[in-house]
Write a structure and sequence with these properties.
The protein has 287 residues and is mainly α. The chain is built from 13 helices and two strands; from the N terminus they run ααααββααααααααα.
């Protein structure tokens, strides 16, 4: 089944969602320009799905992705296109890092993972995004390259910061069971996330920002799960019931699956397709 999805991904939809670098990007639709602003996050999700389904092609692909987004030691970009803001190393965010670290750890890319971890540690837990998305260094360059609706604001910003559960990702990625006592503390934050996402989804049926939470939960269920992960799964299972999403395309889908389909639609690559069966197997809901 997954091999068939692989063929679909890289052959049937390649012209739309995979660019000349061989990287997953968004496509232009309804006047909204496509770019590689979320490429590391998307590639991390795809690589981790490949690991869970034991498709070795994704390991080779992950190495290729790393070679393109690594600008130099400790410096990373969202996408290597030098004509785009996505090639700047000062916009690499927490959202881009989470799934990338999980995928590197899953495929045991220790060299790459160590470099990324130590670069992050040297920043005292802050990520690299000291500038805002979609911004160019000068007003002239911005006017020439940015879409008309994107205002220029190249001022400094406080970068994203790693919370306890983000450090827990590294423990699991490095497969360090002797550090698992820390996970009992860090997984509490995943439990709180489960409550927040479930309540948010109840109040706003169109809420669809489950992707990185799903990645962290799947990783935690694979390596050193704590009682907090068990409880988080129980809480999140409420959201997993069918019909609790405003616009599911299929009434048998659970809300998390519908959220992935809803988030990754049209302008975005259909990653929800790859995670349909993975979610069913991991969170044990009925189709």
């Amino acid at each position: 089944m997954f091999e068939k999805l692989l063929v679909l991904w890289f052959k049937d939809i390649r012209p739309e969602y995979v660019d000349g670098f061989g990287l997953i990007v968004t496509k232009e639709i309804n006047g909204i320009p496509g770019d590689g602003g979320d490429t590391p996050q998307r590639e991390g999700m795809v690589a981790f799905a490949g690991y869970l389904e034991r498709v070795s092609f994704f390991e080779r692909r992950l190495v290729h992705v790393w070679s393109l987004i690594r600008k130099s030691k400790g410096k990373y970009c969202r996408h290597p296109d030098d004509n785009s803001w996505t090639s700047k190393t000062n916009v690499f965010s927490r959202d881009q890092s989470i799934s990338l670290v999980i995928a590197l750890g899953a495929w045991k890319k220790k060299k790459e993972l160590k470099e990324f971890f130590y670069a992050h540690l040297k920043r005292f837990g802050f990520y690299w995004n000291t500038r805002r998305n979609g911004q160019y260094p000068t007003l002239a360059e911005h006017l020439a390259k940015a879409p008309a609706w994107q205002n220029w604001n190249y001022s400094w910003k406080i970068p994203d910061f790693a919370l306890p559960h983000h450090w827990g990702i590294y423990i699991r990625a490095f497969r360090k069971p002797w550090l698992s006592p820390f996970l009992f503390f860090s997984d509490f934050f995943l439990f709180i996330n489960a409550i927040i996402i479930t309540i948010h989804g109840k109040l706003d049926p169109d809420f669809a920002l489950d992707d990185n939470f799903i990645m962290m939960m799947l990783q935690a269920k694979q390596w050193y799960p704590t009682p907090w992960i068990y409880l988080a799964t129980k809480i999140y299972s409420y959201r997993l019931q069918p019909g609790r999403h405003k616009r599911p395309r299929n009434p048998s889908w659970n809300s998390a699956q519908a959220a992935l389909y809803w988030e990754f639609k049209g302008h975005y690559p259909p990653i929800g397709l790859l995670y349909h069966d993975i979610l069913a197997d991991s969170f044990e809901y009925r189709h």
